[in-house]
Amino acid sequence: MRGLFILLLFQTFGELGTRLLNLPLPGPVLGMFLLFAYLAVRGFVPESVDKSSQFLIHYLGLLLIPAATGFGYYLADAEDQIIPILVAATFGTILTIIIVALLMDKLIAQENNNE
Amino acid sequence: MNKLLNADFTERLSFIADSPLVGITLTVGAFLLGQRIYEKCGRFPLLHPILIAVLSITVFLQLTGVSYDNYKDNMAIFSLLLGTATVALAVPLYQQLHLIRSHAKALLITLLVGFLLAPAIALAFAWFTGASATTLLSLAAKSVTTPIAMAVTESIGGIPPLAAGTVIFVGIVGALVGPALMDRMNIHNKAVRGFTLGLTSHAVGTARAFELDPVTGAFSSLGLALTGAITALIVPLLWHLFQTF
């Protein structure tokens, strides 16, 4: 329970922080950076925080289902957007994988040659 | 008589639309069904549990006549916990940070190029095939893990479910073709394979990477977390700047 409390506390800090400072950032994202800073300062991850975060990340897929269900409803309402979205997602992903993998492979080969 | 019975019946069933209990039970049940089918079919990425769950829920809502908005309102607790899960991503980011030291320069250059390239390529494809402004805004943040993409999309005025659906779809495409594609390209370095999967295919790709082997998985979650962090910081700031001009 202590881990979940810490995560909720940082989520609250994130929401408060973005509102008080009028930051153009989503609250949970600021909360993530604040928690990262807290962990970096402490120098280790408390076991309770590790357990709670593993639990939530493990069930991320479940938490996403309501939003993902909206995808089909959105597409049904905007039929002319189906092709652009599917083309961008399919071919965009394949092309990005090719370029990113080639680039990093070359960079690592270069690093190894320099050694 | 028949009409009376129907009205009474509809009234009793309105519980299905009004109660978070039914929505949550339905969602958890659909997820378990999805996991079971996925496992039974040898973890074939096209039968991803989220995909099966979404389809079953859509069928249920259509059959019972419950609107999506109604279902979404009942599931508000899930969007709150999604925020908590986003905060929780700080933990793997912190834990995987030591991996950066092994290939610091290669990882950082790839991160910067990939972070700009992934949305640019997606937006170019979408623009050429006739995407609307709202679609483009929703795709702008699609190149990161879903909870971050949804939060960012909301803050720049896109449609969060569109971003969420696209990220999951992208993840499935990446998990399906990514490893085979890199085999063909003769790329066998685990750091490269993992980081590429995490950067391009996020949570679904990372799950696939962990199935391949733990080193690939670790580099994949590093790619996922770093891409998410940098996009979450930069996309809303860019959008903010863009709007002030």
Automatic annotation (TrEMBL), chain A:
Pfam families referenced in this protein's UniProt entry, alphabetically: LrgA
InterPro entries: LrgA/CidA
UniProt keywords, alphabetically: Cell membrane, Membrane, Transmembrane, Transmembrane helix
Gene Ontology CC terms, in alphabetical order: plasma membrane
Protein localization: Cell membrane
Keyword Transmembrane: yes
Transcription in keyword set: no
Membrane-spanning segments: 24-45, 57-76, 82-104
Its membrane topology: Multi-pass membrane protein
Protein name listed in UniProt: Holin-like protein CidA
Natural source organism: Parendozoicomonas haliclonae
Lineage: Bacteria, Pseudomonadati, Pseudomonadota, Gammaproteobacteria, Oceanospirillales
TrEMBL record, chain B:
Top-rank taxon: Bacteria
Main location: membrane
Keyword Transmembrane found: yes
Subcellular location as annotated: Membrane
GO cellular component: membrane
Transmembrane spans: 12-34, 46-63, 75-94, 106-128, 162-182, 194-210, 222-242
Pfam families: LrgB (PF04172)
Topology in membrane: Multi-pass membrane protein
UniProt keyword Mitochondrion present: no
Keywords: Membrane, Transmembrane, Transmembrane helix
PANTHER family in UniProt: PLASTIDAL GLYCOLATE_GLYCERATE TRANSLOCATOR 1, CHLOROPLASTIC (PTHR30249:SF0), PUTATIVE SEROTONIN TRANSPORTER (PTHR30249)
Protein name according to UniProt: Inner membrane protein YohK
Organism: Parendozoicomonas haliclonae
